[in-house]
Amino acid sequence: MAIYILTDSTADFTPEEAERRRIWVVPLKVQFGEEEFPNVLDHAAFFRRLAEAKELPTTSQAVPDDFLPYFERAKERGDSVICLPMAASLSGTCQSALIARDMCGYGDIHVVDSTQTVLGLRLLIDLACLLRDQGQDAPAIAAELERAKGRVKLLAVVDTLKYLHKGGRLPAAVSIAGELLKVKPIITLKDGQLGLAGKGVGAKGSLAALVKLVGEELAFDQRLSVYYGYTAHDELCQSLMALTRETFGPHPSEVHPVGAVIGTHVGPGAAVMVYLEREK
C-alpha cells in the first residue's frame, strides 16, 4: 500500500518532480479575458503577458471532478492519500477536495487545509513527503501537518505596488504615493490570511525591514531548508539571501520561481522567504 500526496499546481512542482516523489497535482488555470492558460505555463511567458495586460488575469479553482479520479484510483488500489490544497481562505479548491472525498466514500483520504500557497504549500508538501519516507502512516502525517501549518513563516518584498492596486488591495492614492516614495511593502501569509507586515524605502530598506521581522535568530525547523522565491527575475531574491546569510549565518536553502497565482497580485521582481518555524 502506497501513500500519495495530492496537491494543486500553485505549489509549482515540475511534472518530473511530481512523478519522482509520488505527488499528484491537480492543475489550475489562469485566464486572461477569454483566453485560458494552465498554471504550469512557462513563468517567463506568464510575466511577459502580465506586463502587457490591462486587467489582471483570474485564476480558476479546482472542482470536485478534478480530484475524484485520483481518489477513485487510490480506493481501487487500497492506497492512502494526503490531500494538501492551497488555503481554503484563498480558493474553493480545498472545499472541492472535501466534496470529492465524500463522493468517493473512501476512508483513507486525508484532506488538510494548508492555509498556504506557492512556497508555503511546497514546504508543507515536502514535509509530508519526508514523513512518508520515514515510514509514518497517513493519519500520523495528516496530524503532523495540522500541527505544523501554523508555524509556516512567509514574508515577501513586493517590488511595485501597481499589481496590488490593480487587484483592489490598495487604493490608487496609496499606490501612486508609494511608487513616488519608492516604498516596497512586505507581505505575509499567515493562517490563510494575506496581510501587510511592514514596509521599507527602496530595495535595501525593504530587505532590512523583512530581516528584522524574522527576529533575533532564524529559528527554523532543521528538517527542512529555508526556501527563497522570486517572480520573473531573481535580483531582489539573491540580495535577500545574501542579507539573511550575513545576518543569521549559513543555512540550508532552496530557490524556486513563484508561479502565476501569487505572481498575478505582486507582479515581477518580488522576493519571498519561507521557512517552518522551530517548535517552541
Protein described:
- This protein folds into two domains: 3-148, Rossmann fold (3-Layer(aba) Sandwich); 151-276, Hypothetical Protein Tm841, Chain: A,domain 3, CATH 3.30.1180.
- Helices cover 42% and strands 24% of the residues.
- It has eleven helices and 13 strands.
- The longest helix has 16 residues, at 118-133.
Largest sheet: 6 strands, mixed
Shape category:
globular
SSE succession: EHEEEHEHEHEHHEHHEEHEHEHE
Q: Quickly give the structural class.
A: alpha/beta
CATH structural architecture of the largest domain: 3-Layer(aba) Sandwich
Number of domains: 2
Number of E strands: 13
CATH class bucket of the largest domain: Alpha Beta
Task: Name the assembly state.
Answer: single chain
Strand content: 15-25%
The low-confidence parts are 171-178
Tell me the span between the first and last alpha carbons.
35 Å
Percentage of residues assigned to helices: 40-55%
CATH topology of the largest domain: Rossmann fold
The chain-level mean pLDDT equals 87
